[in-house]
Amino acid sequence: MSLIRAEAVRKTYRARRRFGSGATRDTLALENVNIEVRAGEILTIVGPSGCGKSTFLDIVAGLVDHDGGAIYLENKKIDGPGLDRGVVFQGYALIPWKSVLENVAFGLEAQGIPKPQRHDVARRYIDLVGLSKFEDRTPHELSGGMKQRVAIARALAFDPKVLLMDEPFAAVDEQTRERLQFELLRIARETQKTVLFITHGIDEAVLLGDRVAVMTYRPGTIKTIVDVEFSRSEDKRNSSIRSSRAFAETREQVSQYLKSEIDRALEAEQAR
Amino acid sequence: MSSQSTIEEVGVSRVPTDPLGLALPAPSAPRGSSPASEQATLPVWLDPRALARRWAAIVIFLVLWEVAPRTGLIGSSYVAPFSAVALRLATGLLSGELVHHLLASLSRSVSGFLLALGIGLPLGLALGWFNEFERLADPLIQLIRQIPALALLPLFIMLLGVGELSKVVIIFYGAQWAIQLNTVSGVKNVDPLLIKLSRSLRLSRLDLFRKIILPAALPTIFTGLRLSATRAILLIVVVEMMGGKAGIGYVLRNSEYNYDIVTMYAAITLLTLLGLSTNYLLVTLENRFTGWKPENTR
Question: CATH assignment of A39-67+80-84+162-271?
Fold first, then answer.
């Protein structure tokens, strides 16, 4: 059953028209993006940088307008942001003057839920991401990995139908990233949340995804979707999965699809 | 579940730095920090080396101030030695004479400052928040801003008389710019990611303003307050020197007329102390309200 359905989504970035200059070059960021996110799955979207994958996530989040097609969440057309979607940003977006507890409770605070209730709920999710001992800390006292856990707890706390994650682990170091990836798998299992996860890392896409969607470089569109066969296997609970043959094969498959797109992205970069 | 938390989370806490040693309430040490950070060290203000570093230049300056006029290195008719000035200051304060003048100056600058706060802050918030309002008002504001406060003094005296009102208004006028401009930039420079977050959480515009914009702008607003307070003290001296029968500016001018060098230096020292304590007070307030910001103070 599909939870989110994107139909022929298009996004054009208008070049700023300057008075007197005739020609304007608009950038077609997304063209004819069709994709379904199934209820309960983790769908990862992988693509070269600049392919518009983050733009697509922002559109699903309702934070950016699109100029063609439509996106449906449970058959209801998405029109602006909503608490049925929890967004996790790459830059954490933690509120620096609020404690971990208050940060996690912030989505509930915005809905006007009284303090005792929202703190109860927030504590449950802080526990879920393993930060119970740190609920009184402020963000600048936390490491990057901890900050992103707080952001995940905040996005889960108002119980959205789907978690939208925009390269959430890109800013942390290698070891922390690996920990967070397995944490996310555990959390998704425990909460049975649907996750739409944007990344530029092939390993990350294959490790986390039940399915991996590969995006083309500009205009971004879905090139193909690769099923990850081992995605719900027991092996996925520890890092040995990375050295398995199934992992290597899927990785290679995604990598093949992605290669030509990365080449195109590099060419475009050099041409500029 | 929480047993999974771990290595990565240890020992990353930072405490706000405090170059002047002015900050008071040290943020409580985060719990569960690494053993290394628990090693007993003296508080900074007791560490003799830090103390020496902080006070060395000042002590040398005071010694020079004392010795130079007494040894004839500088003409004693231009510079009164430190001890004489300190004595004059102490007797002046104890007899209540300088206190009287101090209070006169304080009440003027505090009124002017509060007026500046009461008008500059809301104006700055409105300018920063309502883009259309700013576009309309900005050209006029930029124009008016170029008029030096003191150039308006004769005008204000003509309009408002030589009494308290013209003095307070000129201080208000001169002091409100720093508050207004810093408030505008504080409101405009809120981390766009926090605004994006707020939108994704469907925060109302009012809540966005109250819960995100205002607290995020607070450190910048405080910078404005401190600049503004400094400006208020500067202006009060000039304004009082130009007329009036009380205030430290008046003492300054009067002692100059009477060639009372010692009192003149005492007045200057008093102004310095006033500026220092004002800044101290504001830094303390700032730390109380914006202690979350790792790189503030001063």
Answer: 3.40.50.300
